[in-house]
Amino acid sequence: MTQHATPSAPTGEAPRAITASGTTILYRLYDVGYSIDLRRAQELLSQNAPERARPLRAEARAIQIPDPPLRVLLEKQAVEFAPDPLEAEASASIFSFGVVSVRLAATMPPDLPWMEFCALGSRMQASAAFVPAFQRSLEAVMARIGPAVRQPALSPAIEEYAVFRVNRLGGPSGVAASELLSDSRVASLLLADPRPLSTAAMRELLPHRFSYYADELAVVTWDNALLVEPNAEDHDVQFVLEFANAQLLELRVFDGLMEAEVSSLYRRMAGARRHSLALLSYPFRGQMRTAQTLVSDTTDLVERLENSFKITDDIYLARVYSAALEVFRARAWRAGIDRKLTAVRETYTMLAEQARATRSEVLEIIIVLLILAEMVLAVTRR
């Protein structure tokens, strides 16, 4: 988990002129299997009144989600957060491509001066006190949906993210949220650097600021985001950020699997080349089957990810989603997977050609031996 220092007040500003009321929402995303049958999972979680989540804004009609994630409320979790323990609202989103996203939401004290809001939010994001609560919540979900998970296996790779949601922002009346929260004030929360940053650094680190209405603001970074949203029922930006994180996790998991497969192929090939007899027995059959299965699964996974969230128009939520993918470097992960897929396919082709060559050589040797045997027999019969 990213460590955050206590932020200092931005130079030349009066941070106590602004107050904030809101919630810190911490996410942990887990890859729990190859895929999840969401209809079956919904049946298994029926006592928790699960629902299929999707954006609700009118503009969200431009977003196509063929298999929306399943959202379920969980039991509240007690967190030993210093100096005062707190109770976090727990919930989870279950994605068809094998990801479970667990959320813990902790309500902040109302009308905190901005710098106090920043300091408390940063401490929550950095605290390890939430880890046991995440684990308990994940275990509760998996205990129920286990039969709906195909090829269950908990990956060691996880994604962590934090959303600081401001429901009420106090300050000079008539001033838009985007103007009240300048880059330096936002940096105090999202970057949490104890020293003031230069204007150029803030411009580079906080390039993605979005506002649709005057009283709302979304700022997206690598491991957290600020959302100013007075409408308590509007969770659309959080939805697209969570979806992007889930897709990123899957790309990371399969990138790791492909990396391990490429390394294993190369090691086995190098070992076989040192033993000429091994080449005659062709030791790569099992490895080729494994590689072929992994290539097929990865190709299928990438296609499912690309089809899981499609945008048909340049709307506000689409811009937030695209910015999240850019910040998370999802396209770079995808490119890495494509390179490894190409390497495995080329290696597979080479091994198949080597297998054919080996069989041809063996057949030629057999034919030569048969000819020699016939010649020997012919001579001995005279």
Q: How confident is the prediction overall: mean pLDDT?
A: 85
Give the helix proportion (percent range): 40-55%
Q: Segments where pLDDT lies below 50 for 5+ residues?
A: 1-6, 11-16
Q: What proportion of the residues form beta strands (DSSP E)?
A: 15-25%
Shape: elongated
Order of helices and strands: EEHEEEEEEEHHEEHHHEEEHHHEHH
Radius of gyration: 28 Å
Distance between the termini: 87 Å
Number of helices: 11
SS-based class: alpha+beta
What is the number of independent domains? 2
Written description of the protein model:
With 382 residues, the chain is of the alpha+beta class. The protein has helices spanning 38-44, 114-126, 131-145, 177-180, 183-190, 199-205, 236-273, 276-281, 285-308, 316-327, 330-381; strands at 19-31, 33-36, 51-52, 63-64, 70-73, 77-79, 86-94, 99-107, 112-113, 149-152, 158-170, 209-210, 217-220, 224-228, 310-311. It has two domains: 15-235, no CATH class; 244-349. Helix content is 49%, strand content 20%. Strands 1, 3, 5, 6, 7, 8, 9, 11, 12, 13 and 14 form an eleven-stranded mixed sheet that branches. The chain has a two-stranded antiparallel sheet with strand order 2-10. Strands 4-15 form a two-stranded antiparallel sheet. Strand 13 and strand 14 (224-228) form a beta hairpin. The longest helix has 52 residues, at 330-381. The chain starts with 18 loop residues before the first strand and ends with a helix.
Outline:
Helices cover 49% and strands 20% of the residues.
